[in-house]
Amino acid sequence: MEIKLTTAAVPTPVAILSMQGLDNRELNPAVEKQLAERALPIPTPQSALGDLIAVISDRHQAPIQAWDAALLQPQAPMQLQVTGSQLTLTTVAGQPVAPDLDSKSSQILVVIGAPLTTDTVVHATAQDLHRKLKAFFGIQARLQYRTLSAIPQVLETVRPAS
After folding, report:
1. pLDDT single digits (tens) 110-137
2. pLDDT above 90: percentage of residues in the chain
3. In what order do the strands lie in the sheet with 86-91?
4. Which of the ends of the chain has fewer CB neighbours closer than 10 A, N or C?
5. Is the domain 2-156 a CATH 3.50.50.60 member?
6. Which pLDDT does position 43 carry in this prediction?
7. Greater model confidence, 25 or 69
8. Which domain of life is it from (predicted)?
9. Averaged pLDDT for residues 40-63
């Protein structure tokens, strides 16, 4: 899926993870334990990846948003833009698309970052999530780093067939 990264007045680091074939139904006991120990609210609707994102976001204090990529595909290409103090995914017509993730989601798009989040925090958060996806789900997500700046960019979330 193509994502257009719009321009930003303030350089904004962002990490984008995309993955397919995720079994998002099986809750991980280790992640559930961390949610309870940290007294974090359980995401609704609850899903294995949603729980993991809540734990990692709390640990790194970085905004993480996730969408069911299968639902985004018919609206593609999408745009990622800075709106106020956050990143927003929109259609090319400018309609915001709210984060949407549930236990049936198997194709996922994850965006990490915000205008005031440092490059170091975005990288650390993305690396942590990337490692945990491999460890807990056996999924090798595609991880890409970009900086929204004065120059618009285009990012492809799926590797071309070789």
Report:
1. 999 999 999 999 999 999 999 999 998 8
2. 69
3. 86-91, 78-83, 2-5, 153-156
4. C
5. no
6. 86
7. 69
8. Bacteria
9. 91
Going by DSSP bridges, is the β-strand pair 2-5/78-83 parallel, antiparallel, or unpaired? parallel
The phi, psi pair for 128, rounded to 5°, reads -60, -50
Check residue 54 and give left, alpha or beta (phi > 0: left; psi -120 to 50: alpha): alpha
Please report, as a single letter, which amino acid is at residue 147.
T
Burial of 77 (0-12, 13-18, 19+ CB in 10 A): middle
Domain residue spans of the chain: 2-156
**pLDDT at residue 159, as a whole number:** 64
Name the residue among 90, 101, 3, 86 with its Cα closest to residue 45: 101
User: Helices marked H in the chain — which ranges?
Assistant: 29-37, 48-60, 69-72, 119-132
Give the separation between CA 152 and CA 136, rounded to whole angstroms: 35
Total length of the chain: 162
- Per-residue pLDDT of 61-92, as tens digits, reads 999 999 999 899 888 899 999 998 999 999 98
